[in-house]
Amino acid sequence: MKKHLLNFLIILLIPIYGCSQNLNRSNDQHLNLDFEKFNNGYPTDWLDFGEGDYKIYIDSNQAKNGKYATVIESTEGKHVYKALAFTLPNNYQGKTIRLTGSIKTEGVTDGYAGLWMRIDPQLAFDNMDKRGVKGNSDWQEYEITLKLNPAKTERILIGGLLTGKGKMWLDNLQVSIDGKIIGKDEIEIFNRELLPADKDNEFDKGSNITFPTLTYESINNLELLGRIWGFMKYHHPEVAKGKYNWDYELFRILPPYVNAKNNQERDKVITSWIEKYGKIAACTTCKPSPENAVLKPDLSWIDKSNLSNDIKELLKEIYNNRNQGENYYIKLHQFVNNPDFTNEKPYSNMPYPDAGFRLLALYKYWNMMNYFNPNKHLTEKEWNTVLKENIPGFLNAKNELEYELMALQIIADVKDTHANLWGGGDKIQELRGKNFAPFKAEFIEDKYVVTDYYNPEYADQAKLKVGDIITHINGREIDSIVDSLARYYPSSNHSVMLRDISADLLRSTNSSLHIKYVSDGKGLQHELPLFERAKLKMYGMYRVNQDEKAYKTLDGNIGYITLANIKNEDFHMIKKTFKDTKGIIIDIRNYPSNFAPYALGPFFLSKPTAFTKFTYPNLKNPGEFTFTNPVTINHDPLYYKGKLIILVNEKSQSQAEFTAMAFRAVSNSKIVGSTTAGADGNVSVILLPGGLRTSISGIGVYYPDGTETQRVGIIPDIIVKPTIKGIKEGKDEVLDKALELINMN
User: Fold this and answer.
1) What is the pLDDT of residues 347-406, one digit of tens each?
2) Is 568 helix (H, G, I), strand (E, B) or coil?
3) Neighbours of 264 (CB within 10 A)
4) Burial class (CB in 10 A: 0-12, 13-18, 19+), 133
5) Radius of gyration over alpha carbons of the chain, in Å?
6) DSSP helix/strand/coil, 125
7) Does position 559 have pLDDT exceeding 80, yes or no?
8) Is the CB of residue 277 less than 8 Å from the CB of residue 238?
9) Chain-centre distance of CA 117, in angstroms?
10) Pairing outcome for strands 165-177 and 700-702
11) By the 8 A CB rule, do 630 and 613 touch?
12) Residue among 33, 328, 67 at smallest CA distance from 158
């Protein structure tokens, strides 16, 4: 729900360490902030992240200072953003930190170039989004200044970023603390105190664990261990203090555990393991879940297990005296309170992790979902069954591709459109291929229909026209292909699965696909040529023209607003321009570029109105989620009295859905279109062994009366979907229906 770019800037795969107050002095003289050091054309000690098609390289012809500058440049294809990131090696004593850097741009459109700096854990952040550099510009120095809080700071990150299209040069970065320049002046620092969990590196190069042939009994035992391991991770006070690298503690217990000859030997191993971490003090503040909790912890597995009664009592004692302070492995994001899975290493150095690390990945993910997924109860599979059924697949994955596919399948079991494999799925992408059709095809009236051309100049080669129906690809019916691939496309509902899978059906490692299709009632077939993505003007779910105004007056004195490129300054002008219109249409079949509920919502309300409430996790009782109070939008005494129509479809996701909920609260509003993506709530990032990155909707989002939105989406008051006939005629039938409703007496 937060601004798209900010969500991604939170995703940096760099370990976080605690801080102590032992002061030393350091000059940090060898930081590569001027980009004079590089390997294979890439700046040394820097990382990059982002979404879209960009390249990063060193330029020796356009440096501001020294011999080299770094370039971020968009290439042909999708353009969201690309960022360079550098983690400062120290936490500094002082009141303010200032980042300066020189930027040059060429042809920057649909976004901006800028510096960015963030102090974790989300203490301060600036990415120049309100003052970024656009168009063509010569070298100029820019700056960001943030307040320091050394006692709470865990890491400081700096960098540069490019959103949209174009090219930016970055050079001569400099960081100063209260005016003293890092690398030049002597500055007091907080030494980072590495906790025992940080210092434990015994298994950094592999677990070296081999598993006996799996049997029904051994799978049951591995399931049991996964439950106990996750329970201890989030409940045991000594684990919570960061005294143990809990990943590696698993590798220490696994050999004797899997080699136990019977349940009695197994229970001795478990007892010794639990007792290793010491007797815990009595908890005077541990409370049971309130009766009105939306979700409550389910620890029934303890009594249902075949563990000895002594072990069951040990586990219950841990629960009754569970951790009540901070936890090294789980926090809540500031302000939003969605889960922040801290100190989870991605183990990116092992793209195909060994069997121990693959089991660790399964244990991690299952327990994160078990205790901190606010929508766990909405999965189609009973989550209690998922751990056991995936153990053979994770352990038997023969290569990197099989491991990625197993991870993708369990992610899909969560039934959350936010929960895809967003990073680390290299082999899956290779399998899908880099060649695409030159047109966009989508599911219309349950048929796979050509809806737009990325590159009209390839239309003669492709032969298909907008409105043509593709029935077969390489001899297989479309429905059959969709059924076989559905489990690899995580989604909250069927419409979103079709939305996402449609982009990959006409994709291959080959240079062509043999297709059968229907055009003007005739059945035809053709060898469809494919093109590398870099040669196509592809776009994602929405085609957005950032140069167009976000609002206009349509015939009949009707106001139209698209949130795709809405700017902060537009909100005031919209109220002024549309105050006397017959009706207003707000189009949210897109991802809003600015947050509209509180800026525009009051314009339509005669009184303060509640429109949503959330569920948050209780870290003192993992697995418990309770409601917040309803969230209210204020009102405007000069509120708008005309009709309000909101347009949505399966492309309306996350912030778009939240915005639709807000406008639904208006008494004379109607939502028109089709069901939305069913994935609301701020995103929480999850890192898994092998450099895999996924995420979930981190808070539960409900209507004030407790009606769920996750998976359900925002259901329109009036359902209108595009038709094949309308596609052929170039009509927007959803917009046409909105105009009809406003013009009705």
Assistant:
1) 988 999 999 999 999 999 999 999 999 999 999 999 999 999 999 999 999 999 999 999
2) helix
3) 9
4) buried
5) 27
6) strand
7) yes
8) yes
9) 20
10) unpaired
11) yes
12) 33
